[in-house]
């Protein structure tokens, strides 16, 4: 029992990674993939998880080796790396925060029967999130995520098993297969890969959580322990993504029903995937698990962006580093900025949940090769005493080449240089 308790205490950044990853990419994109194309995109889901693995692993490896975050690693590469990372972060953070918040708002509105606009519900959610972060920061976040992930994992596992027991009966009249000759299908794959299993930005967040975990424990966890924590979170999220795709395929594919772009309507459809598989009695459990999952994603994003932007700001304005009070004010400054930017996007681009999600995921897809390259450069840099294992080095290079080639193809397709 003591060993189990010690093991659970050790878990932290890996499950926070899972809390950030298991959100839009799983509840929305994986479900859409299954509902729209059946099992056609299962291999794409697995490939995305395999290709991106090294770059997220680096987010756990670097703080275990150095006690520093990846942002400090970017500093050691030179000013160009910090400037590039700043530009990539600022170009995506408002859209990502807006996307996860509007999905959460849809779930809350559907379950509680609220008749407020998505912007108002999003504003309330972000206000509550700010209060939680003000109260507990890392330690509270660490405790909450463990329960959320356990509840959602068990619910999804039960729903998938129940769906298999009921059988797979798509109606041939409504069956649609994925095609590389259709532009809309390719656009969906781009959005799907963009956040599967998560944006590569999350590797930087994880490194910051790793530093926070070490501070909380009073010591730096050994590399083996940090990688075990990460692998549990990473493999767990990949399995959950497969579960959501299976639910979408077995319950909605070929049914004639399409997933709504409206957040609240989609939320009802999502919860019905579970209740159709398990039974109506499961509604309250599933509703709580789904809301908790998306709320945890909203919470982790709003915790992460100020953690990222504060040290970036002190890089450009070194005088702000001198007092802890100034750092705390800086952190709250960025929380307010991120919330304001996300709400502004939702206010001015009220085109539905699907538009916001596809915009955020596509931006993440396009920036993925650059972030992957930055992470690889940091872990290959001469300032590290321990070299990357040779297999991991070649693995990362192959991943960068794949992400770059696919992103280049997408850009050429959008510009009309490549024709289908």
Sequence-ordered SSE layout with sheet pairings:
Elements: H1 2-10, H2 13-21, H3 24-37, H4 42-66, H5 70-77, H6 79-112, H7 118-166, H8 183-194, H9 201-217, H10 223-252, H11 263-278, H12 283-316, H13 324-348, H14 353-380, H15 390-415
Please describe what this structure looks like.
With 420 residues, this protein is mainly α. The protein has one domain: Up-down Bundle (Amino acid/polyamine transporter I). The chain has 15 helices and no strands. It has helices spanning 2-10, 13-21, 24-37, 42-66, 70-77, 79-112, 118-166, 183-194, 201-217, 223-252, 263-278, 283-316, 324-348, 353-380, 390-415. The chain is globular and about 65 Å long.
Give the full name of the CATH homologous superfamily: Amino acid/polyamine transporter I
- Radius of gyration, taken over Cα atoms and rounded to an integer in Å: 21 Å
Query: Could you state the order of secondary-structure elements as H and E?
Result: HHHHHHHHHHHHHHH
What is the strand tally? 0
CATH topology label: Amino acid/polyamine transporter I
**Tally of individual domains:** 1
How would a textbook summarize the main sheet? Answer: none
